[in-house]
């Protein structure tokens, strides 16, 4: 069935929160892994100069021959940059610290906010057959994050279940509004996912209550628990779904993927 709201090509989702330590990269890695596990073909674009998503998906720095820096600033074709990971259906555009200078180099470019948008819509994109592209944004509202939002159809916001969690959202929402007004009117908020949730902790419960009261259905029903296996998995360069497939963290990211696909069923149908 034809769906006029369905993006042409893969749906592109920016995973963003300018506050560090909220589980953004962890969510990018494990949400992508969960989607791939249930048959979706997923590309992770590592747009963070720290390159933690690249490491967490098993690609060591010495093995990153071409990166997001080359994609944005040197016009490399995607086919020269996309790397396979150790998991079926899951692919990666890696990052290195070279990307840390991109903000300065982008300023002089007239199309500085549209470089990722154009790069992810290269004519050779169709050959890959991706269902979803997940962009792991840096923990700041810089030109790289703006590039991600201009390129994306929607923004997924990981929200740490701790004090002051909601306060940082206002600036992020303002940036999303500015991008809508200036460059990407169709950008929407995919949802907010609560991370590092501890059901035994009154503070986590209060943050959840506040988030649901303020943001309503934007908050996913699935919450990601604070889980030692989730924390350990990156040091073994693998998603938690591979590191400990039956852990609470792995089960939670699978549930998030199912809930997400349920909300997007019109886009994944046919």
UniProtKB/TrEMBL annotation:
CDD domains associated with the record: ParAB_family (cd02042)
Signal peptide segment: none
Regions that span the bilayer: none
Name the record gives this protein: Chromosome partitioning protein ParA
Occurrences of domain AAA (ranges): 11-189
PANTHER family linked to this entry: P-LOOP CONTAINING NUCLEOSIDE TRIPHOSPHATE HYDROLASE, PARA FAMILY PROTEIN CT_582
Domain of life: Bacteria
Job description of the protein: Involved in chromosome partition. Localize to both poles of the predivisional cell following completion of DNA replication.
InterPro entries for this protein: AAA_dom, DNA_Partitioning_ATPase, P-loop_NTPase
Pfam families reported in the protein's UniProt record: AAA_31
């Amino acid at each position: 069935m034809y769906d006029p709201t369905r993006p042409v090509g893969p749906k592109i989702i920016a995973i963003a929160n300018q506050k560090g330590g909220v589980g953004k990269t962890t969510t990018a890695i494990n949400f992508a892994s969960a989607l791939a596990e249930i048959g979706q073909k997923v590309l992770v674009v590592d747009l963070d100069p720290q390159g933690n998503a690249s490491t967490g998906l098993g690609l060591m720095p010495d093995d990153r021959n071409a990166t997001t820096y080359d994609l944005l600033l040197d016009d490399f074709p995607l086919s020269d940059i996309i790397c396979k990971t150790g998991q079926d259906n899951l692919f990666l555009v890696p990052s290195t610290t070279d990307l840390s200078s991109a903000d300065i180099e982008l300023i002089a470019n007239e199309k500085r906010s549209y470089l990722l948008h154009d790069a992810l819509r290269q004519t050779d994109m169709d050959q890959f057959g991706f269902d979803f592209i997940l962009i792991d944004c840096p923990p700041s509202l810089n030109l790289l994050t703006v590039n991600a939002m201009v390129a994306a159809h929607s923004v997924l916001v990981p929200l740490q279940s701790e004090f002051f969690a909601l306060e940082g959202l206002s600036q992020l929402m303002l940036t999303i509004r500015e991008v809508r007004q200036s460059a990407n009117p169709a950008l929407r908020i995919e949802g907010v996912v609560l991370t590092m949730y501890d059901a035994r902790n009154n503070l986590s419960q209060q943050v959840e209550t506040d988030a649901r009261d303020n943001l309503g259905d934007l908050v996913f029903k699935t919450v990601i628990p604070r889980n030692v296996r989730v924390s350990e998995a990156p040091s073994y360069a693998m998603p938690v779904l591979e590191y400990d497939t039956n852990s609470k963290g792995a089960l939670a990211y699978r549930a998030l993927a199912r809930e997400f696909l349920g909300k997007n069923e019109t886009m994944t149908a046919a």
